[in-house]
Structure formats: C-alpha cells, structure tokens
Amino acid sequence: MALPHNDGAVQTGTDILSIDGVSWFAQNISLSRPTKKIRRMDNNGEPDGQKVYADFTEFTCDIQLPDGDTTPPAQGVTFTHQFRDQSAAETYLVADYGETQGQEDQVTIPLTCLKVYN
C-alpha cells in the first residue's frame, strides 16, 4: 500500500485563526460577501435599471479548543484574517459563539464574525 500523498491541488476546508493571542484550528468556514440590490421597473413592470453594491461581510466557522483549559474568544474581541479572495488581511469582530459537544466527537465552538468597517 502506498503512503498518503498530497500534491497541493486539493484545497482543504480548514484554516488557523489567531484571536487574542490564541491560535484556533477553524473548520466549516463559511464566508459571505453579499450585495444589496436596488431594482427599477418601468410603467409596464419591465426591468429598467439596477444598482448593486456591497453589503456587510461576515463569516461563520467552528473552532476547536486547543486544550481543556482554553476559554472561547470573548464577544467583541477583534482580530485580523486574510481570506483567499483578498489581497490583504481584514479586521473581524467576534459577535456570537456557542458550544457543540457530541458523543465520541471533539468539543467545538461555533463562531459568527463580522467585518469591522471603521
């Protein structure tokens, strides 16, 4: 049987987030960069024009506890992270967190993080 091999072509769904001096192994990352749309119709209800612009960016993920003594990141703490679609790091704020436990599974902390704009 051949040894496992990774040629780098398969992108995996994990990342490291550094929050408040702790490195967190993040999984199930879901980044959302939605838009707002203003649509205009003519007097017959036919499309006549539109404007599309950026809405608020946020992401959710599950982070693993590095050890049994680590507490989850506090709500309101900020950190920087660079996603693949950006040329530089952005600042995010921890908005929501919880705790998920499962039989024969690791404890994870679900996070919702909002991009900081000012």
Write a structural description.
- With 118 residues, this protein is mainly beta.
- 0% of the residues lie in helices and 50% in strands.
- The radius of gyration is 20 Å and the shape is extended.
- The model has no long low-confidence stretch (mean pLDDT 89).
Q: Please state the average pLDDT score.
A: 89
Overall geometry comes to extended
If you compute it from the alpha carbons, what radius of gyration comes out, rounded to the nearest whole angstrom?
20 Å
Number of helices: 0
Percent range for helical residues? under 10%
Number of strands: 8
Low-confidence stretches: none
What portion of residues belong to β-strands? Answer: over 45%
Q: What is the CA-CA span between the terminal residues? A: 55 Å
**How would you write the strand order of the largest sheet?**
1-2-5-8-7-6
Q: How is the main sheet built? A: 6 strands, antiparallel
**Helices and strands: which structural class?**
mainly beta
Helix and strand run: EEEEEEEE
